[in-house]
Amino acid sequence: MAVCIAVIAKENYPLYIRSVPTQNELKFHYTVHTSLDVVEEKISAVGKSLGDQRELYLGLLYPTEDYKVYGYVTNSKVKFVIVVDSSNTSLRDNEIRSMFRKLHNSFTDVMCNPFHNPGDQIQSKAFDGIVSGMMVQTG
Amino acid sequence: MTYSLRVSRKCRGDTGPIDTTQLHTQALTKKPVFVCHFHGVLPLTHMECQEEKPIIYTMENKPIVTCAGDQSVFTSLYTSLAQQLPREPMEWRRTYGRAPKMIHLEANFVQFKEELLPKEGNKALLTFPFLHIYWTDCCDTEVYKGSVKEDMMRWQNSLRAHGSADWVIVVVETNDNKKKNKTNILPRSSIVDKIRSDFCNKQNDRCVVLSDPLKDSSRSQESWNSLLLKLRTLLLMSFTKNLGRFEDDMRTLREKRTQPGWSFCEYFMVQEELAFVFEMLQQFEDALVQYDELDALFTQYVLNFGAGDAANWLGSFCAPVRSWSGLLLRRPIDMEKRDGIQRGEASLLDLRSYLFSRQCTLLIFLQRPWEVTQRALELLHNCVQELRLLEVTVLEGALDCWVFLSCLEVLHRIEGCCDQAQLAANCSHTVGLWAYATDKLKSLGEHCGLVSEKGPTSEDLNRTVDLLAGLGDERPETVNSLQSPYKKLKEALSSMEAFERHYLELSHAAMEMYRAIGRLRSARLVGKSLAEFYMRKGDPERAETFLQEALKSYVSEGWSLPVTHTRRQIAECQKLLARTDDYLQTSALLAGDVNLTMEERKHFCQEILTFADKSGDPSHKVTLGMGVFTQLTRLQFCPATASVHSGAVLQVELTLRCLMPVSVRIQQLAASIHFDLERGGTNGRSKVAQRQTNPGTVEFLQADSTEAPPFSVAGPPLELDEIQDRSPSDNSLNSAGVVCKNTHLVMRRHDSNSPLDTVNCVSPPAVAIKEGGQMLKVQDVTLQPGNNNIIFTAPSGQPGTYTLRQLYATVGRVQFVLPHIYPSVQYEVYSQEPQLTVEPSSEPLLAGLPQRVKFTLLTGHYAVKKGDALQLSNTDTMPILPSTSCTACISNPAAELVGESVLSIQSSEKVTSISLPPTPPYHTLEFQLEVLCVIPPGTDRSTNERLTNGEVRHRPRSYSHPDTPMTAIDQRMSIDCPWSIYSTLLALTFYIPFKTKHSLLSAGNRKYIQVCVQNVSDVNFTLAEVKLTEKQHALLELQSLNTKTQQLLCSKHSVFCLWEVRWKDDLPSCLQCVFSADFSPFNQDISTFKPFYYQFQLERVTTLYSVRAKILPPAGEQYCRSGLLCGLEVCMTRLTEPAEGEIAEDSKTDTDSLKTTKLMYEVADSSSNWAVCGKSSGMVLMPVAARATHKVQIEVMPLFAGHLPFPKIKVLKYMPHTAAVAIQPDPDSCVENDSLSLLDKTLDDQTDTASIRSRGSVHSVGSGDQQQKGVAMPRLEPFSPGQVFNHSNMQQVLVLPSTDDHIMEVNAT
Questions:
Q1: Which ipTM did the prediction report?
Q2: What family is this (chain A) (predicted)?
Q3: Is position A139 within any domain?
Q4: 0.90 exceeded by the pTM?
Q5: What is the CATH number of the domain that holds A65?
């Protein structure tokens, strides 16, 4: 399961970022922020070749010694980033995809909330719950 | 003589001498060539180790084809054969659904030897002879039978003994041979047939004829082609068959992997054999697949191990790592490692290294160098993970060494096979390795004490030695290379300087690459890491540059946690650099940063306070941006209009959100003000258009730097408007759209002038503090964390507009400045002229009664001093009633009563002076005075149009008001005020409560005057002392016929009073009467009675004529009967002697001695009681003398029976036409107008003819017009009411019904 899940706005500021409490939160912030480089690279690369028909799932953005960073970008250029511990080898690509899909669905629900101001930080219990379900259970 | 060896390949590796060169030389010298000596080294061959050190270079291998039979024949054909075999590709159909491939076949032709045939169980593939060819050019049956057949038989037997079915017999035919042995020559076919029948039992295709191979003929070519095709086909068949068998075996072996005793290493060797063969066939893709499968298999085992399912054979890989010499990619096959694997002694790193080196080699053959880098990174990460997973003991730092060396090795390898341009274009593939290597070198440096300021300790040195030991000796391939990874690492670990050089080199390389490919965030992260390095080295200056750059990016993208972290590092730098201003600014930011713990925040806050309190050079003041310290969130004006008169108190309440974690005492909080003198702004009230919805309150939208990213509050909201474009011709809609009205705000660049950026900018904003201007100041404020309200009293001296510009908070030597207050906040100070107003205290003001009026003085900017007085010019028509106690109330602008004082009022003849109590500016002074508006004595119908002409002195105008039946009078007051040289003119409207009418009543010669007083007001009055006097004639007596002394006059009711006029000698023709009465509101004291006068004039009072009528019944009748003619006798008698005017007037018509006047009579019955028969009107000539009588007989007929009133008899003056009358305005001509007009004239002292004429022209619209125009027409004039007395007025006569009338008519009234 994930150790960090982040939602990043179109303008690249974090809408939501949560990591497992046992680890250095700051490190994940740096990791996710840096991963935007690759996200942007992938988006622009896809944009050139396929036009609008693109896959939302960006796959593995980049691996580090300790983590694998996966990316996903909605059509409105909101980015989802999931960081998975490298030692967690049981996760398959499909599982990551389904995690992203779940995240996207929940995110859509958040956006549908008429009281949510798009562009604001996500403060939704439902979304929190979905994210918690995907995070590593430490405890 | 060479069989075959291609010396060069497309991708041969880059460096120096390769082992294979030896192999080449051997291959070239030995004959027959035996390229590979695998027997000894392949574990599955189970052969003893052979003499020489095995040297393998598989790439140079080709499938082995043995040649038996006549060697000379083969030798002669070898060159052509070796050349032509690979020329045409063949399709290789694959088993297991693998895609067919086109393949160029090559072969290593070696002489057939029994030993070449694999023994039972030998699974070596590389040395496996895939095809056996028997060459013969025998064409002689004898020879065939004698030796060839036997040889063939032996060959066949040995093949069969080894189960090899891949063979072919080539019969070479030449014409030379045929010619040589003509006798024994069988037909060509016959020997082939013989061979076929002897050996190719049902497999006729196993015997091929090659005709005239050395000749250049079409036949020769044809037979060559068929031979080559046959060879290729058979080779492929053999491949398919043998590889298939091999794969099957291999799979079987793999399936046994769950069995105890199964060894991965053994299996590895088997599958690698397959990979070798594919590689030999130049099927690199397939070869790579073999390695990838091995890779995956191994990975799976490691993972299973992690899951608790440990395989026995994995034990060897769990051994502590003793060598970390990194990848070795310069050899196609690293035999050392391969041996280790074969022996089951390889460590995990060894196996991984070997596998990767093989994959790398194949990928480079496949020209996919970028996949190498990608896989390398994965591999390195994976290895680190696997070692962790397997809990392999590794010396700390050893893996870093291994990774570092491996990264560089991969990079070198890639650099070796790509040119510079390619490398530059594919930075994105290599940069990860660069960054990884940088990272690892850094951690090595830290591990070995190379990053500290002091240098490595002995402990550090020990660690370094241990690490270096694990590197072993440098590999022979790179010994001569100056830049080998090995040398780099050794050097880097040798000294701090060298380490720094290498580390910087790597860092910069990585950063530049990241930048080149646009991964700026990654570049900055490397930069940050570099900054940390510099910090450790004690070089904060360089560190700061990198940190600032990183910070900028985090701030601009709103990543608060990295911002906080980076900023804290910057603070450290700045502190070390003693950049006080910057440090304080950063500290302020950090003190307000919610991401930090309270302790940290307090620490940074204390840093500021400590500096602020430090008594040092007082001139050294530090100016910091306000936004980091406290935020202005709200500003509220009191009063909310933000507009006060000059000198008034205006309070400004600031709400400051203090971001500090502790309360901070501020010596002074000040706001500078820009003052604009307002032009013509004496009364600012009109200009106060409140811009905000909440009056007097300005909310400052604050971008919260810590929580909300800058984008969510970017810019003002859009103001959109709809626009429609309509066609000018028919007004149809062309287009509709939406237009943004505030594009200039919305489209503004946010990065350049957003206040947030100045907040986060680390250098404090350059703020020009404008000293000397007006300031709002508060001393000694303590700001608590959170919202604080601070109240300023704003200066309001001069009138004008005050704009709040900057805000300063001074804490010791530190000053926090908010350079611009935006949105701009203004307040206005205005100056107001004093204003005096007068209004009734109750509506309506009634004339004739004392009424209270309220004087209101708004002092404006004028301060009423002691002794100031209002001078009211007295008027007769509205005196100010002296009052004993008149109090003035003073109230402040907020309408609160602040004082009361008694006014002293002094009246002189001309003015009434009201001394005002001292009153401050902008206060309201109120007092009430009693005034009395004198009711003008004239009749209330006196219209005043003509009175305004050229009048110097104002006279109250009375007019009828549309809203009320009362007549209104405007009273003007002229007041001299102490603040102005001009008099103030004020108007009050009074209403006359009464309407008065008079009438003259006659009874023969006797005269009565009736006055009717109508109360038109809403008040009930008591009327008393009703009197009527005549002014001119003393002898005249007016006897009151009124009985009551006091009378109630209710609202909307009237009172009638009557007087009889009595006179002694002569009744004057004109009476000047004054009606007077006292009145007071009902139920009030007698003392409150006020007089009421009504003047009027009566003219032609005297009765001139009396008219008597008589009805004469028809002759013979006693009474009149209806329907019968009766006579009406009218007798007109002159009663008086002619008066003066009358003579003059009438003498014109009759100049003889007997003066006559013409009278017109008219009998008219308006009620249709009578029918006038014959002449109803006529003219009589009446002598102007007393007692002159004229009788007229008229026939009338009563139409009804009963008491009928007499028919009406009118007597009129007949005026014959004269030019003089028309032209000359005669005073008497006005008679036809109402007599009251004349009365007016006399009252008004206005006798000038012009005024009369003008008035006349107004009044004679109907009748007088014609006369005025001079048309000579005789005219009739009525007499004044008293001049003709009709005795028979209202007299009645009894009329009997006509005799034959059966109808009884009853009139009941």
A1: 0.93
A2: Belongs to the TRAPP small subunits family. Sedlin subfamily.
A3: no
A4: no
A5: 3.30.450.70
